[in-house]
Amino acid sequence: MAFEEVCPERIDLIHKNYRKLCNLLIDVEEWGQVVIINMLTRYARTQFLNPNVNEALLEEGGGGDKTFYGSDEDEDEDEEEKEKKAEAAAMAKRKPYVMDPDHRLLLRNTKPLLQSRNAAVVMAVAQLYFHLAPKAEVGVIAKALVRLLRSHSEVQYVVLQNVATMTIKRRGMFEPYLKSFYIRSTDPTQIKILKLEVLTNLANETNISTILREFQTYIKSMDKDFVAATIQAIGRCATNIGEVRDTCLNGLVQLLSNRDELVVAESVVVIKKLLQMQPEKHSDIIKHMAKLTDNIQVPMARASILWLIGEYCEHVPKIAPDVLRKMAKSFTNEEDIVKLQILNLAAKLYLTNSKQTKLLTQYVLNLAKYDQNYDIRDRARFIRQLIVPTEKSGALSKYAKKLFLALKPAPVLESPFKDRDHFQLGSLSHLLNAKAGGYQELPDWPETAPDPSVRNVEVKESVRAVGTVTYRDTGALWVLRGSQ
């Protein structure tokens, strides 16, 4: 503890004591074990080579971007093939990885602590294995972490935060324990949402049908925050696994007839993101969602529907102007986020169907001109200058169609835990997803192996005189042997 507080950067002080610390670890009291394990984790990252270095190189080599210029495609493809061959040759020449005995000593001596009764010790060993162990050996921590899910909700929360991060990088180690992450009705909302995150990360082509059936049950819950998170999870599954995209989309469309407005609103937001991937195949769904503007009152859902109609107005040429007419009537009573989307819808329809929507657009722009919110007033002035050319209009108005009707990339639905892996697992910074005071970055692996002899301890031979002690009452003779 003193080392961690006074001079945690003085790695050189650990060299001679490293093996002793590893061997004594099992006998140290529990909270001391946590401190020592975290200290040795950072030490190992500076003194040993990455045991997964070959895997990391393959991932980097296989992810090359394709070329931009079409005229040079053939030459670039040849260059890419040459680069791949060169990388393969370099990998073949690379010496096979041999784990340092001291690295193995640390892994071997910490493994029994996965059986500890203290959740902090188990979590410390789990993060050590995740950051230091070969990929083939990391799986041993999964069972220990799943065991902690039977503990108090506070412990579950911390464990699930770390498991959610682990499942992004190494999903396979938790797949055998899929059912351990099923949600109970007695779980607190935060635990439910974290388990949802883990289940979504574990979803693949093999188990997706089982997970979706489980999600269908969750949607019937009375916990509205949990239901909203479940709908978002279904959307992520549909994004990540193309085989079930249509199935998920149809299921979400059925939720649009749900009596609960919050469920409908969340479904609309997720459907909007999914439709951006293949809008031409789902014009019927866009028409169906356009009809919901009369009933849905949640601002985010209304804004999502209006954005969808404006973005794909060519798929619903008869419905879009009518939606704008209805929105113009209620413009002054709408929320700001909805007003902004009404302005965007008006601008896009003016550019694609000006004969039918010219007067409507001018009416909406006049309403926005005197709105209380300055963002809406500014947006109205900006749109008017772009789409209604005048003598004062600049050259930018010529590119109005390119600005408003440009093709937009489909959104990527990613896990909120994707960017947390740069924090050390088990730390407060990882839990908060922000660097906390006193946090120490986990060092990068060294490129070349440091000298292992720095951990050798010189043994000095010393001879002591043999002493004798005689007890008068028994006459027993005790021989005290010298020790070094």
UniProtKB/TrEMBL annotation:
Keyword line: Membrane, Protein transport, Transport
Single GO BP term: vesicle-mediated transport
Location of the protein in the cell: Endomembrane system
Domain (Clathrin/coatomer adaptor adaptin-like N-terminal): residue spans on this chain: 1-388
Region Disordered, annotated ranges: 60-81
Gene3D superfamilies linked to this entry: Leucine-rich Repeat Variant (1.25.10.10)
Membrane topology, as annotated: Peripheral membrane protein
InterPro entries per record: AP_beta, ARM-like, ARM-type_fold, Clathrin/coatomer_adapt-like_N
Biased amino acid composition, Acidic residues: 71-81
Gene Ontology cellular component list: endomembrane system; membrane coat
Organism domain of life: Eukaryota
Family to which this protein belongs: Belongs to the adaptor complexes large subunit family.
Name of the protein in its database record: AP-3 complex subunit beta-2
Organism in which the protein naturally occurs: Crenichthys baileyi (White River springfish)
Gene: AP3B2
